[in-house]
UniProtKB/TrEMBL annotation:
Nucleotide-binding recorded as keyword: no
Annotated protein name in UniProt: Zinc-binding dehydrogenase
Keywords noted in UniProt: NADP, Oxidoreductase
Lineage: Bacteria, Bacillati, Actinomycetota, Actinomycetes, Micrococcales
Keyword Transferase belongs to the record: no
Length: 355
């Protein structure tokens, strides 16, 4: 089968499209033919350096994927051959206390498709049958497939941070940074679907205009307004936001606290801007503000997000869709930061059967 295989760490040259053996399937797994895979920042980060301790090369990346079942499992709950499925990239044992409590990322056997297991930048991939959700889509509908592929990591992380952990409700004001990123764009749509007032942060006039067009109520261009906290306070008549969703980390966390009303909350869902920070503690305890850890998203979050998307409660924002052979160009687009929403690569055409 065809696959983009990473053989070392470095630039785009360490990932090459080659023919490799098709993956075998364990008794509880299915083989899916990849129809579309959405790119994530981690795809580039772990190509550059071994940021995930248990990740090794050779490696096939691609966490977010939708595909068609090629070989079904003997498992009773396995989707049937031919079914189109959306794949949860989080793999765990399914039977320990953490898995039974729907916190699979704490499982001792936790792994991730596209990170510590082979992922979707290939014709075929082996995935646990329990990780598959059958979705109502024509396998030839590339536009819908691209949207579906964009749901798992970005959509479910946003769902977890804003709703399951953050308990965002209608008429609350939420600040969401990075509306142009796949994660931020998904968060904006999910918050809007719940009737919240959305203030979002971007860099540049072009992204400000796109964020407004996507439905955000107010958009702060941080290149034109560096003191975004003061602007949030102005937009909320000095009160502050009910919630700031911090999927950025680093120094952003301290600023997020100052932008939050007394008694409000900051939900921490990511650390792309840094793993460490400094806080002015009176900003936390004197106004009674709260910092909430995002926690492990589980199958319930995944199921709820998929149901909300497929029923039209929220949409995902797609920047661009690329052919399988164009993966290097799609990755360059991701690295450039000149995008708005998710970047998706279609699965390869089926290889001809050997004669």
């Amino acid at each position: 089968m065809r696959a983009w295989v990473q053989t070392d760490f470095g630039g785009p040259e360490v990932r090459r499209q080659i023919d490799v053996a098709a993956p075998p399937a364990a008794p509880d797994e299915v083989i899916i033919r990849v129809l579309a895979v959405a790119l994530n920042r981690l795809d580039v980060l772990q190509r550059t350096a071994p940021v995930i301790p248990s990740m090794s090369v050779p490696h096939i990346a691609g966490m977010d994927m939708v595909g068609q079942v090629e070989l079904a499992s003997s498992d009773a709950d396995s989707p049937a051959v031919g079914a189109v499925v959306l794949v949860d990239p989080v793999v765990s044992c399914g039977s320990c206390d953490y898995c039974l409590a729907d916190t699979p990322t704490y499982c001792a056997e936790f792994a991730t498709l596209g990170s510590t297991r082979s992922g979707g930048m290939a014709e075929l991939v082996a995935v646990p049958a329990r990780n598959c959700t059958v979705v109502p889509v024509d396998p030839d509908d590339t536009a819908r497939l691209a949207e579906l592929a964009a749901v798992p990591v970005a959509g479910v992380t946003a769902w977890r941070g804003l709703l399951s952990a953050g308990s965002l409700t209608a008429n609350e004001t939420v600040v969401i940074p990075g509306a142009g990123s796949g994660l931020g764009a998904a968060g904006v749509q999910i918050a809007l679907s719940r009737g919240a007032r959305v203030i979002t942060l971007v860099s540049g006039e072009a992204k400000r205009e796109r964020a407004l067009a996507s439905g955000a109520h107010e958009v702060i261009d941080r290149t034109a307004t560096p003191d975004w906290v003061a602007e949030v306070l102005r937009l909320t008549a000095g009160r502050g936001a009910d919630m700031v969703w911090d999927h950025v980390g680093g120094d952003f966390l301290g600023a997020a606290l100052r932008a939050t009303r007394p008694g409000g909350r900051v939900v921490l869902s990511g650390t792309t801007a840094g793993l460490d920070t400094q806080l002015h503690l009176p900003d936390l305890y004197q106004p009674g503000r709260n910092i909430l850890g995002h926690g492990s998203y589980g199958r319930a979050d995944m199921a709820a997000a998929i149901e909300a998307f497929t029923s039209g409660d929220f949409r995902v924002v797609i920047d661009s869709v690329w052919e399988f052979d164009e993966l290097p160009a799609a990755e360059r687009k991701l690295e450039s930061n000149d995008f708005f929403g998710k970047i998706v690569v279609l699965g390869p055409p089926r290889s001809p059967d050997p004669k």
